[in-house]
Design goal:
Layout (H helix, E strand, L loop, with lengths): L6 E5 L2 H9 L7 E7 L2 E10 L10 E6 L4 E5 L9 H11 L7 E8 L2 E10 L3 H6 L4 E7 L24 E5 L4 H14 L2 H11 L2 H14 L9 E6 L5 E5 L27 H6 L3 H17 L3 H21 L7 H32 L16
Helix pairs in contact: 2-9, 4-5, 6-8, 8-10, 9-10
Length: 373
């Protein structure tokens, strides 16, 4: 243990270290030895991340010889270092399977790398541990994974509707099925669209995921930073969260942002098509209301914030590799709580605005005080 945290010690040869440092964007794995919990095993390591690959303190993906895959995130843009962990705990709380996390201390060749967040990979092992049968798995690697026929930034037409997705597991038809699905949700209308959505989307589970992204304020979580899988039985699409560093009132660069930055409709083509049906929009609104009342509360989330922050504090005090100041770290519990209060008021206001348009399908009196009819 180091500063109360488990230690991960990596040994890499001089040649391997030079090869790793040569290109921050390389996808090539380098062989290493990993010691953790008193046991040493062979493994392979590479850098990971988006814009953070250019930072001095790198993040890593490590594959152990036994098959376990872990991600070590430096969390350089999060002064609290708990936003990913807190978000995944919250997602689990609202019924969305999410990666397990733990904070660890990393050494490479005896040199202290400092504090990291260890994150479970979403792969076959993830599904097996949760008894989730699945048919295919894709990663939403960039913001072209928006369930649209056009790119979000330029508005230009996509040459391939699978743009933005990284194939991980499945069969020879996985990509073509996804392309057909995206094409059809924009071609079909009315009852045919409704039938298509009900056949190929686990709608209640999708709304759970959507609510989680909206409540945590993950602007980058709708069009990328998620895992898309097909259920094995009914073969419906479902989504799992990934990369929630830019949440709870800060963006992906760690800058404070308004609690109203993320609209409650989210930002992708699938959500847009689902919410055009008044009864589905009502179902989503009622789900958000219920979460505001029961899960997105200081009583439920507050103890998790305090637990993560308290456990991390000794390591933060001795980690000189952190960008954020120690005083900023100490203020983050209050910062996150303030975000929750502001976010709740904003969502209540938006749901009240929805109420008029949904009056024919909304109950006469909704559950959450503050948006009663």
């Amino acid at each position: 243990m180091r500063a109360g945290l488990p230690v991960r010690s990596v040994y890499i040869s001089a040649n391997g270290q030079a090869e790793l440092a040569k290109d921050a964007w390389s996808r090539r794995f380098i062989p290493v030895q990993l010691t953790a919990g008193g046991r040493t095993t062979g493994a392979r390591i590479r850098y990971r991340g988006g814009h953070t690959r250019e930072y001095p303190k790198k993040s890593y993906e490590i594959q152990l010889d036994g098959g376990l895959v872990l991600h070590w995130n430096a969390e350089s843009d999060d002064p609290s270092m708990i936003r990913n962990a807190l978000s995944f705990r919250f997602m689990e709380q609202i019924g969305v399977p999410a990666p397990r996390t733990r904070h660890v201390w990393l050494d490479i060749n005896g040199e202290t790398m400092g504090l990291y967040l260890e994150i479970e990979a979403v792969n076959s092992r993830f599904f097996a541990l949760r008894n989730i049968p699945y048919r295919s798995l894709l990663y939403a690697a960039n913001d072209s994974a928006n369930f649209e026929r056009t790119h979000s930034d330029s508005g230009g037409r996509k040459q391939d509707l699978s743009e933005g997705y990284e194939f991980m597991e499945g069969d020879g038809e996985t990509i073509s099925r996804l392309c057909t699905f995206i094409r059809d949700i924009h071609r079909q209308k009315g009852d045919k669209l409704r039938d298509l959505l009900e056949e190929y989307v686990d709608i209640p589970a999708y709304f759970n995921w959507l609510s989680g992204v909206v409540l945590t304020g993950n602007f980058d979580g709708f069009e990328q930073n998620y895992a898309l899988y097909e259920e094995a039985g009914e073969r419906k699409y479902n989504i799992l969260p990934w990369d929630y560093e830019g949440t709870w009132g800060r963006n992906c660069y760690g800058k404070p942002c308004s609690a109203g930055t993320v609209r409650i409709e989210g930002y992708n083509g699938l959500t847009r098509r689902l919410l055009q049906f008044p009864d589905l929009k009502r179902d989503y609104a009622l789900k958000l209301e219920k979460m505001l009342e029961e899960e997105f509360t200081n009583e439920q989330v507050g103890p998790v914030i305090d637990e993560l922050h308290r456990r991390l504090a000794p390591a933060v005090r001795v980690d000189s590799s952190r960008f954020a100041t120690k005083s900023l770290f100490s203020e983050e519990t209050l910062f996150i709580r303030r975000y929750m209060e502001e976010r709740k008021l904003i969502i209540l206001h938006e749901l009240k605005r929805w109420q008029g348009a949904l009056s024919s399908v909304m109950p006469a009196r909704v559950r959450v005080k503050g948006i009663e009819g």
